[in-house]
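Anyone able to model this chain together with iron/sulfur cluster?
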Amino acid sequence: MATKPPKADPVQDAPQVAEPKHAAAGLPAIGHSLRMAQQQMGVKRTALTLLRVNQKDGFDCPGCAWPEPDHRHAAEFCENGAKAVAEEATLRRVTPEFFAAHPVADLATRSGYWLGQQGRLTHPMYLPEGGEHYEPVSWERAFDIVAEEMTALASPDEAVFYTSGRTSNEAAFLYQLFARELGTNNLPDCSNMCHESSGSALSETIGIGKGSVLLEDLYKADLIIVAGQNPGTNHPRMLSALEKAKAGGAKIITVNPLPEAGMERFKNPQTPQGMLKGAALTDLFLHIRIGGDQALFRLLNKLILAEHDSASGAGSGAVDEAFVREHTHGFEEFAEAARAADWDETLTATGLTRAEIEQALRMVLASERTIVCWAMGLTQHKHSVPTIREVVNFLLLRGNIGRPGAGVCPVRGHSNVQGDRTMGIFERPAPAFLDALEKEFGFAPPREHGFDVVRAIRALRDGEAKVFFAMGGNFVSASPDTEVTEAAMRRARLTVHVSTKLNRSHVVTGARALILPTLGRTERDLQGGGEQFVTVEDSMGLVHASRGRLEPASRHLLSEPAIVCRLACRVLGESSRTPWGEFEKDYAAIRDRIARVIPGFEDFNARVARPGGFALPHAPRDERRFPTATGKANFTAAPVEYPKVPEGRLLLQTLRSHDQYNTTIYGLDDRYRGIKNGRRVVMINPEDAQRLNLADGSYVDLVSEWQDGIERRAPGFRVVHYPTARGCAAAYYPETNVLVPLDATADTSNTPASKSVVVRLEQSATD
Ligand code: SF4
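re: yes, here you go
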């Protein structure tokens, strides 16, 4: 039987702390998955639903974007996938009566966890100006309200259209089309906050902002470097792929400021051997300081060049000369910068020993096929773009792009975040994309660049934007500088959220606010043209169908494509020649248009009908062709940077707990790190704790220091002595987003630098 949502917010400030675990998954993961699923869905629905996740005729997991193997198990999901599905397919409901009982002011005092636990939204809800409660509203009236505010804008650029990574390809394509027909490129997305640095660096260096490996490549690799990533919590089925790669002879180097259980040992729940003993994954753990990755890869590049230049190394193949000659540009300048890399500076930047780096070098030189995987640990620093460019330098040097078993592998966080970008959710669209839209739909799309996330917040803060529309997500909790972001949202004339569940963004509102409840991935989508399916693109560029089968949580829900179509009809009216009604009825009609606008989607409907879908073309991977400005893969030679931390301060990274997916909090435990029943913890190295006189179990306020002179404070965190790298600390977001200044962003990509926040720890008043 499913259980009821918690009435009171649970006590969150008394975390219990035990030793961190050294293995991930196994029986405990199965137990936790089933317990959480059953609490939300009951036994029968749990079985019916989980057996359809990630199956070829089932629905795509709403969790991360890790790809499915061609041969699928009956249970093709991980613990976090099960939690994501359970949250969506929950039997709990948030009805108009709930809103009548809870004024917005009351909801604003609740934790994100409590809000999420209340269940699925059932009705469109409206908060009128000056109102205290959300009230039920008809869909027609809801669209009228949006139209009133949008048509009153002095310019379409006063509207912001945010997208979260769950949105399907079909909905995303329509959504960007609507925004551009309205006349704006203000299409920020969650990618601005996560892998924008990867996209920027890869577009410039290899000509496409996506990873260049497929799942099979991992199985063929000799060496896989996993840098700044915690797959055990964030992309758990990646562990199966790493296990298989190791069984095929691959070595793994893990580069991270924290040891993470999943990269230590994986207990594969699909095999008896895995359940009993598991497999050790990491061959070499580089316990790097936060932000030291560029320096590490730069030094490795120097050492590879030195090996090649030395008498014993000449002709040894340390550098793939033929590849460098035929396929790359900028080698000389890069090589000069790499040869100047300094051992002492690298040891300071990384906190590693000479012996560790030399061991890594031996493994690199012994490998003919190398893949580098990474996630937010590399992308959310001021110098993230040059860091990822240096990773590309490292791979180019030995010809590790465009051949089997080798390449770049940025691992995407949300299930369709990559697909949404492919569909045109981007504030800086390529001219060729806009030309294709213009030709297909017969209107002149705006050419001016729009707002990304950070610029959108500034525009709302400064009164330049007045309507904020979110297709999914939890913008307020995902964004940096919480107090600034919340104040910015409150200045809007209208905030609108298309959502499945309640979250904090619904209770930090503009003068007027709407919640538009939508179908989830698990649910049947019936339209005038019959039962529909949608499509998604995974982290490796494979596009496939997703079909929900459950009855919708309420008969008042609309699908995301239907919401966009009706909204577009109402707002654009006669001025639009786009057949919105036809698109709402039959999503195949949307896919036909996508096929004509976006390269790689030719014959979309026929190809996606094949079980498993199809792979999008990727010129560097498929043909060693690099569609860059130079027509070749570009070496780069940026100066090495790393965070400098003043005496008495620590460098904080914000991260997720194991009971969390992005901003969704499933529970209050972080099992692998030994933390239970609380989220306000700060993990610091015991030697730093001793130096700073911070006992384990004491309480501190985290105070961030930034060049704007404003001190940002997150109060009441329990100190946990933890094996973080020296000088580094870690604490969960969104609680610590308040510490990340809006203007602290990565150069070029403008991604909030949430992984390198200088903080001082002050004894807390709550201690
Ligand atoms: S690895 Fe990601 S996509 Fe796969 S089941 Fe887990 S959360 Fe879902």
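The CA atoms of residues 452 and 645 lie 29 Å apart.
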